[in-house]
């Protein structure tokens, strides 16, 4: 007899408040992108700014040029999905509203979830490069504009996240050809970028996290990128063990 879907989900359900807050706190620290999805496929991308245990709330960022925010706020059902490395985190969103925080910034708040689900899903690891030497991408937002240099926040074999100041005009849907990606002295290549999302950073409201999909990499570039990701994982693992 088939096992009901709800019963199969029990293996992935987390209901301990401390474990829930820990996972959400890790997502906040790593500026993990969160997709809020309403019925009929309406989505809104944000990040967790704060996990407030005392108030029992989550604080989420508001993208200035974000689409569908009004429809997301009016939705009766909302699902949040984000990823920690290869782990998919999913939970229902309740009582979402837009408010002003103590700094006067517009933010979203909702109740802390009473349960969430954790699934293994991603096929590609995403890693945060070590801060030195600083990994960067050099690109021209428009063919006629001067080149700009943006620091890399994290990278996978299919995409890259960049730190953007308010002066750099990148927005969702933009395509940038021929960007120079420099991860370290031995890992440099050219890629085409498509901006998938732009999310403000809580720790620096004048800056944003820009998630881009990469394409057009040569076979040697892909091999060098995979080698860089593997080496970065090993170095971070070794650093974590050294701190124990």
UniProtKB/TrEMBL annotation:
Coiled-coil region: none
Domain PilZ, first and last residues per copy: 120-231
Record's keyword annotation contains Ubl conjugation: no
Subcellular location: Bacterial flagellum basal body
Main subcellular localisation: other
Pfam family, any one: PilZN
The Type III secretion system flagellar brake protein YcgR PilZN domain, residue ranges: 12-118
Taxonomic superkingdom: Bacteria
UniProt keyword list: Bacterial flagellum, c-di-GMP, Nucleotide-binding
Segments crossing the lipid bilayer: none
Annotated function: Acts as a flagellar brake, regulating swimming and swarming in a bis-(3'-5') cyclic diguanylic acid (c-di-GMP)-dependent manner. Binds 1 c-di-GMP dimer per subunit. Increasing levels of c-di-GMP lead to decreased motility.
Assembly and binders: Monomer. Interacts with the flagellar basal bodies.
Assigned protein family: Belongs to the YcgR family.
Name of the protein in question: Flagellar brake protein YcgR
């Amino acid at each position: 007899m088939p096992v009901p879907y709800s019963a199969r989900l029990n293996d992935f359900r987390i209901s301990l408040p401390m474990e829930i807050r820990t996972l959400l706190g890790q997502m906040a620290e790593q500026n993990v992108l969160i997709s809020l999805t309403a019925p009929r496929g309406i989505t809104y991308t944000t990040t967790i700014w704060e996990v407030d245990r005392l108030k029992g709330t989550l604080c989420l960022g508001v993208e200035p040029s974000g689409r569908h925010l009004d429809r997301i706020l009016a939705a009766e059902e909302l699902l949040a999905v984000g990823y920690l490395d290869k782990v998919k985190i999913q939970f229902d969103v309740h009582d979402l509203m837009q408010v002003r925080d103590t700094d006067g910034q517009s933010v979203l708040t909702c109740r802390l979830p009473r349960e969430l689900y954790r699934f293994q899903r991603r096929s590609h690891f995403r890693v945060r490069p070590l801060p030195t030497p600083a990994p960067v991408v050099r690109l021209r937002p428009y063919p006629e504009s001067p080149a700009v240099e943006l620091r890399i926040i994290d990278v996978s074999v299919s995409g890259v996240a960049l730190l953007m100041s308010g002066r750099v005009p990148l927005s969702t849907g933009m395509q940038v050809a021929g960007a120079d990606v420099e991860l370290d002295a031995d890992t440099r290549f050219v890629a085409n970028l498509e901006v998938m999302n732009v999310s403000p950073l809580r720790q620096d409201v004048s800056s944003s996290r820009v998630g881009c999909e990469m394409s057009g990499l040569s076979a040697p570039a892909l091999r060098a990128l995979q080698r860089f990701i593997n080496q970065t994982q090993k170095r971070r693992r070794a650093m974590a063990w050294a701190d124990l």
